């Protein structure tokens, strides 16, 4: 592993979010990372209705990234904000889209997919 896994999730990096509803219907979206805030990964939602619905039912999330030729996966829990500090950070990050929700991910596990092992 050459890259620090947190660097792979830096602001502006494309991420794939995977969620699942309580009735086991999966969903995935590609989003841009807003980086780490207070040690947690921040994502803005502008159009992800199914993702938000899934996360409101089941706050577990899986995120995959490829950066610099390396692949990482994180698993964690989500908090969703419709106002406040995290929402404001999301709103300021992109004037092109109107933020509906701030998604704050508390990371529980990190995997290096190239090495096929858990690293955190």
Description:
Strands 1-2-3-6-5-4 form a 6-stranded antiparallel β-barrel. It is globular and about 40 Å long. A hairpin with a 5-residue loop joins strand 1 and strand 2. It is of the alpha+beta class and 120 residues long. It starts with a helix and ends with a strand. It is built from 3 helices and 7 strands; from the N terminus they run H-E-E-E-H-E-E-H-E-E. The model has no long low-confidence stretch (mean pLDDT 95). It has one domain: Electron Transport, Fmn-binding Protein, Chain A (Pnp Oxidase, Chain A, Roll).
Radius of gyration: 14 Å
> How many β-strand stretches?
7
Q: Which strand-content bin applies to the residues?
A: over 45%
The global form is globular
Q: Describe the sheet with the most strands.
A: 6 strands, antiparallel, barrel
The CATH class designation is Mainly Beta
Report the order of strands and helices: HEEEHEEHEE
Number of domains: 1
Tally of individual helices: 3
CATH architecture: Roll
Look at the helices and sheets and give the structural class.
alpha+beta
What are the segments in which pLDDT stays under 50 over at least 5 consecutive residues?
A: none
